[in-house]
Specification:
The complex is a heterodimer of chains A (about 675) and B (about 300).
Chain A: E1 2-3, H1 16-23, E2 32-34, H2 47-50, H3 56-74, E3 76-79, E4 90-96, H4 106-119, E5 126-132, E6 136-138, H5 146-154, H6 165-178, E7 183-189, E8 209-215, E9 222-229, E10 233-234, E11 241-249, E12 254-262, E13 265-274, E14 279-285, E15 292-300, E16 311-318, E17 322-328, H7 334-345, E18 351-356, E19 371-375, H8 382-393, E20 397-401, E21 411-412, E22 417-424, E23 435-438, E24 458-462, E25 468-473, E26 478-485, E27 488-493, H9 509-521, E28 531-532, E29 536-538, E30 550-552, H10 562-567, E31 570-572, E32 577-582, E33 588-594, H11 607-615, E34 642-644, H12 646-674
Helix pairs in contact in A: 1-3, 3-12, 4-5, 7-9
Chain B: H1 7-10, H2 16-32, E1 43-48, H3 60-66, E2 70-74, E3 81-87, H4 101-119, E4 123-129, E5 133-140, H5 145-155, H6 165-172, E6 179-185, H7 191-198, E7 207-214, H8 216-219, E8 227-231, E9 237-240, H9 242-266, E10 270-275, H10 281-292
The chains are: A alpha/beta (about 675), B alpha/beta (about 300).
Chain lengths: ~675, ~300
């Protein structure tokens, strides 16, 4: 036996009050007048007699009342089974509240069937209610009270989440691990085929779980804007192409009208023919996009049962191009050409590159530039180096390439590292070397494929133990390094961007690499145009920055409370729509969340698959299971459960109060008569 | 008729004179049916009128026939007088039921005064005392005297302590004629002291009777558990237990009553114990016994 709230047991100390009343107040009885005390003798009364308690039964009842009150608040419980209440099984009612359950009366039907199960449940059977959406949300404890279960079922609301039956199986395994009682699980769902995981092994149920499926709804045709491909950032809208794909599930061939909305206003509209149960794409070229963060949507005239997926929201940010400064030796004209060509070839072409010689850098104002590239510069005048270094320390970013010219110096300017020497691999037998290790987390180069195919002919060795190495050659020579300098960053490519030191400019990934470098150096973040419901947004890109974040939800509410606003780093998007974010560093952002289009396909899973799924558990169909039960499974007696004795304490309290009232009334009458 | 002597019934009657009349008339009516006692107010003899005699007693018929003035005398009509000494100390205010001890004493005193004045034509006097003499009505038998006695009884309120010495000493100066002295009190004092204080009243051949008036709760008190008692006269407090009250106290009160009775008889003083829940006829009967010399 234990107590759920043992602090309330301190209330038992109040039994001192009736004891005091019965023991001490007794000597302070009401004085009576008498004719004369002449015939009375002063008595020496024993202490024991004086302290004898009057009305033992009444005192015991009053003490019992106080103890029962304290016990009721402290909520006593026992582990095990009360006589006649041994639970025979655990009933788990799982209601699918995913997006597809919004079709027609699916959720209401599911809720009604679940309530019927609760109503027919034996009194001593424990049950639990679970809502299956983005996660398996346990809505109740394991209780026998049908009212609690019914209230939880009625509280289930449809969500924009994607349902996955794999989550249900995972939850069933967790439940089965916590109890050896047979688990009777009921799933009330539309049984979408897309809810089944690709790997059927993920659906395998524990041996003591019996799954009963309650399918609601039926196949309904449904159109949806399946996807939209749009650049998250644009500088020249005339070159922008927005491609939207419209899909039909179980639909006949039809013509749909597709509309592009910019900030809620119709910007363009097209009609496309969607084949039966097929897809069709439409392109919106050069839409008129205003500056700033733009709320864009593509929507169709779906006229189906699930209208919420007929619209796809996304965010486009339009801004000005940034300028970069490319400094190279006057004799080197090729690297600038390669670099600029690569930047301009990138899809978004966000950078305008200005080329200058080291001498021209002397009088150049560095403030307008987002980054500076020092391409194999043999040396910088001290004043110029000091200006560039100060600009970096103030928050700028610079990239140095150390080719054959730069290697002639004793130290690298700006990067401020001594040059240990150089290695000309063309003189080796292998004639070249290649990249051996890549830091995948490093944004400019991390996930780019094809590094192993790049031939490096010449490399400059520097002594920079504090620098982060992103690319390393086969002989462990660092090829791409980065170090902080004040508030800014300096990157070092320990070879050149020409064709003499590496064949990188000849490879396709050179364009992607330079594009990423341009984005990284100019401080542009990697935006995405749209997220899915359930995806998390990062409210604190820099964890070191302490500040309060805020989220303005599509319904106009602020879902973060003060504690969350001050501490939460990432926050999952709960529903479809646009979310205005205020990040911890006070920057503002806008993200769009869309319902997973897997929910748009309302095709139910095949009966064979569902039977197979049921057969994986311990139900009647288990014998037909084609998958073996897990070896080493433990079969044990039903697990003990916790029984709250609060109700019994209250019943006893009621009896004690009535008895006390009757007895006290009787004593009062006696006292009145005697007085 | 016996109900008319019940103190509880009498307590509902507002006027003390009416109470007295009710008690005595009822009591006399009961006596007429008795063969043992006779109430005499029959003619006894004539006596020549002397100055100072009450003209109301002159037999005017004899005067008309003989031209002489005679006083008509009846049996029992002697020169006796009745002195009622009423204790009105605080302890007399005790009551465990509707009738307090002082109220009971009022009824008795009023009835005795009525009986003596109206029926026996005795002179009746009254002394109301506590620790001192608070009221004194000299004995007389004239018309209207009874009302004065009753008025004094009505005004008596329980207060102060009891002292038998001072009032009785004061009373001795007024006892010039042979008569009867009735002391009505609860007698919460040592019996020897009471008798010693009362004995001087027997001068001039007076009959002295002590009526000890007690409440039933004083004789057989009941308490629930432990109780705190307050002395009505001194204000002293004493906590007593139930077992003491039902044991030791009863022994002491019984001994006190027995001692007082023994001491009184030893001194030739009459003694009677009256309880406030009992009819008043015992007190009247005792008075008549003494009056007729049959006690």
């Amino acid at each position: 036996m234990g107590w759920l709230a043992p602090g309330f047991l301190l209330g038992a100390l109040t039994i001192a009050v009736p004891v005091w009343l019965h023991l001490l107040k007794r000597s302070a009885s009401q004085p009576r007048q008498f004719s004369s005390l002449m015939l009375f003798e002063p008595q020496v009364r024993s202490t024991t007699r004086r302290r004898r308690i009057d009305h033992w039964l009444l005192l015991l009842l009053r003490v019992a009342v106080l103890l029962l009150v304290a016990a009721a608040f402290a909520e006593p419980y026992v582990r095990g089974h009360l006589p006649g209440t041994a639970p025979d099984k655990l009933l788990v009612l799982v209601v699918d509240d995913s997006f597809s359950m919004q079709v027609g009366t699916r959720l209401a039907d599911a809720r009604r069937e679940a309530l019927a199960i609760v109503a027919a449940k034996p009194l001593n059977t424990q049950a639990q209610v679970v809502a299956l959406g983005a996660r398996a949300a346990v809505l109740t404890e394991q209780v026998q009270d049908a009212a609690v279960l019914s209230a939880a079922l009625r509280a289930i609301k449809p969500t924009d989440a994607r349902g996955s039956f794999g989550l249900l199986t995972s939850m069933a395994r967790t439940l089965a691990a916590g109890t050896h009682m047979p688990i009777e699980m009921h799933l009330f769902s539309d049984m979408q085929a897309t809810g089944l995981p690709p790997d059927f092994n993920e659906l395998r149920l524990p041996h003591n779980v019996t799954l009963t499926l309650h399918a609601v709804g039926s196949m309904s045709p449904n159109w949806t804007v399946e996807s939209v491909s749009a650049p998250p950032q644009v500088w020249d809208p005339t070159k922008t192409r927005i491609v939207a794909t419209v899909a039909g599930f179980g639909t006949p061939a039809a013509t749909r009208t597709v509309t592009l909305l910019i900030n809620g206003k119709s910007a363009a509209s097209q009609s496309i023919k969607v084949p039966a149960a097929g897809r069709a794409s439409v392109v919106f070229a050069g839409p008129d996009i205003p500056y700033g963060l733009v709320r864009a949507s593509v929507q169709i005239d779906g006229a189906d049962a699930l209208s919420a997926d007929d619209r796809y929201d996304f965010v486009i940010q339009r801004s000005e191009r940034v300028h970069g400064l490319f400094v190279h030796q006057g004799s080197d004209s090729s690297t600038g050409l390669y670099f600029r060509s690569a930047l301009e070839s990138a899809a978004d072409a966000a950078v305008v590159l200005d080329e200058v010689s080291p001498e021209q850098l002397r009088g150049r104002d560095l403030a307008p530039y987002a980054f500076i590239v020092l391409s194999d510069v043999a040396g910088l005048p001290p004043a110029v180096e000091a200006r560039v270094t100060a600009w970096v320390k103030a928050g700028g970013r610079a990239l140095l390439s150390a080719g054959t010219a730069a290697a002639q110096q004793r130290r690298l300017p700006v990067f401020d590292a001594p040059i240990l020497g150089s290695h000309d691999y063309t003189r080796d037998d292998s004639r070249f070397t290649s990249v051996a290790s890549v830091d995948d987390a490093y944004a400019p180069a991390g996930t780019l494929p094809g590094w192993l195919g790049i031939k490096i002919f010449y490399v400059t060795r520097v002594d920079a133990p504090q620098a982060q190495v992103a690319l390393r050659l086969a002989d462990q020579t660092p090829l791409l390094l980065e170090k902080r300098l004040g508030k800014g960053r300096v990157l070092l490519f320990a070879s050149g961007f020409d064709r003499l030191t590496t064949d990188l400019p000849l490879h396709p990934q050179f364009v992607a690499f330079v594009d990423r470098l341009g984005s990284y150096l100019s401080g542009r973040t990697n935006r995405v145009s749209a997220l899915s419901v359930g995806d998390s947004v990062d409210l604190r890109p820099d964890p070191a920055v302490r500040g309060s974040a805020d989220v303005l939800a599509p319904d106009g509410t602020h879902p973060l409370d003060l504690r969350e606003a001050a501490r939460v780093r990432s926050w999952p998007l709960p529903a479809a729509g646009f979310y205005a974010l205020t990040l911890a560093d006070s920057r503002h952002d806008l993200v769009a969340a869309n319902v997973s289009r897997l929910e748009s396909d309302l095709t139910p899973a095949s009966a064979d698959k569902l039977k197979l799924w049921q057969a994986t558990g311990g139900g009647p169909g288990a014998a037909a299971a084609t998958m073996p039960a897990p070896s080493g499974a433990i079969t044990a007696a039903p697990a003990e459960s916790v029984h709250n004795l609060w109700w019994y304490a209250m019943c006893l309290l009621l009896v004690a109060v009535i008895a006390e009232s009757l007895l006290a009334s009787r004593y009062l009458n006696t006292l009145r008569e005697s007085s | 008729m016996q109900n008319l002597l019940d103190p509880a019934v009498l307590n509902a009657i507002s006027g003390l004179d009416l109470v007295a009349a009710t008690v005595v008339d009822g009591f006399v009516a009961g006596l007429h049916r008795s063969a043992d006692f006779g109430f005499s107010q029959e003619f006894a003899e004539y006596r020549a009128y002397a100055p100072g005699d009450d003209l109301r007693h002159v037999d005017w018929n004899v005067y008309a026939r003989s031209d002489r003035t005679y006083i008509k005398l009846f049996d029992g009509e002697t020169n006796s007088q009745l002195m009622l000494l009423v204790d009105a100390s605080s302890s007399m205010g005790f009551a465990s039921h509707a009738v307090s001890k002082l109220a009971y004493v009022r009824f008795i005193a009023a009835a005795l005064a009525y009986l003596a004045t109206r029926r026996q034509r005795d002179a009746t006097g009254l002394v109301v005392f506590g620790d001192t003499v608070r009221d004194f009505v000299p004995p007389a038998s004239r018309q209207g005297h009874l009302q004065r006695v009753l008025a004094s009884l009505m005004q008596a309120q329980p207060q102060a302590n009891t002292s038998y010495a001072a009032p009785l000493t004061h009373l001795q100066a007024f006892l010039r004629r042979r008569g009867m002295v009735i002391v009505l009190s609860d007698f919460y004092a040592p019996p020897a002291d009471i008798v010693k204080a009362v004995t001087p009243l027997r001068i001039h051949g007076n009959e002295v009777v002590l009526f000890q008036v007690l409440d039933p709760q004083e004789l057989r008190p009941t308490v629930d558990g432990s109780s705190m008692l307050i002395d009505l006269e001194t204000g002293a407090q004493l906590e007593v237990s139930e077992d003491y009250v039902q044991g030791r106290y009863r022994e002491r009160i019984d001994a006190h009553v027995a001692n007082l009775q023994r001491e009184a008889r030893r001194a030739g003083i009459g003694y009677h114990l009256l309880q406030t829940d009992q009819p008043l006829d015992q007190a009247l009967l005792q008075y008549l016994r003494l009056r007729t010399g049959r006690d």
